[in-house]
Task: inverse folding
């Protein structure tokens, strides 16, 4: 398959999704709002206090590897999500937390990860955008399935194509988040998700 470049990947993306009427389960707005509250709490009061507010025992979390703690945080965020939607959302949210902490630090306690530096630099909006773009990419990867492997058997070309797709997903979510500053609540999350769906699922 001849490389088309990143600009044309969005058209590919629309084609993969043309049979869909929605992209996200309705509960994703609650998940994004919960993630925003947790991230804001970390910035204001520290990780130990934020964990306590999730009703997770801070004394059992503080010295454990972050990768273990993050699994419990993800499960807490997903408690409102229907079972059939949990696997993909959980994968995306776990990947976002691993990126937040820094892959090289996930086996260390939270205090030794880059969680706070990341949030100070990018804010809670940045973390919400990271999660949503990862989820959009994971959704697309599921839709592509084995079809792309047949079309692009060369491993290097395949990896390049997927990197371009990941970049497109990031750009789409970043554009969808360019709405007037408001509270980062469920209404804001719903507006962002609606912007993504309008761009990708537009009727032609």
Result:
């Amino acid at each position: 398959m001849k490389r088309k470049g990143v600009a044309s990947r969005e058209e590919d993306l629309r084609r993969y999704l043309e049979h869909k009427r929605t992209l996200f389960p309705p509960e994703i707005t609650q998940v994004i709002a919960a993630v925003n509250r947790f991230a804001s709490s970390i910035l204001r009061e520290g990780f130990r206090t934020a964990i306590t507010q999730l009703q997770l025992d801070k004394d059992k979390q503080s010295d454990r590897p972050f990768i273990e703690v993050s699994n419990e945080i993800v499960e807490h965020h997903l408690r409102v999500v229907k079972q059939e939607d949990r696997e993909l959302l959980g994968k995306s949210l776990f990947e976002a937390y691993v990126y937040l902490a820094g892959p090289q630090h996930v086996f260390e306690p939270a205090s030794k990860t880059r969680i706070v530096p990341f949030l100070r630099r990018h804010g809670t909006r940045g973390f919400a955008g990271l999660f949503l773009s990862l989820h959009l990419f994971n959704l697309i990867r599921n839709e592509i399935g084995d079809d792309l492997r047949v079309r692009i058997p060369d491993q290097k070309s395949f990896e390049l194509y997927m990197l371009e797709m990941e970049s497109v997903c990031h750009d789409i979510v970043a554009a969808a988040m360019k709405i007037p500053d408001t509270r980062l609540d469920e209404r804001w999350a719903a507006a962002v998700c609606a912007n993504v769906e309008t761009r990708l699922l537009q009727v032609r």
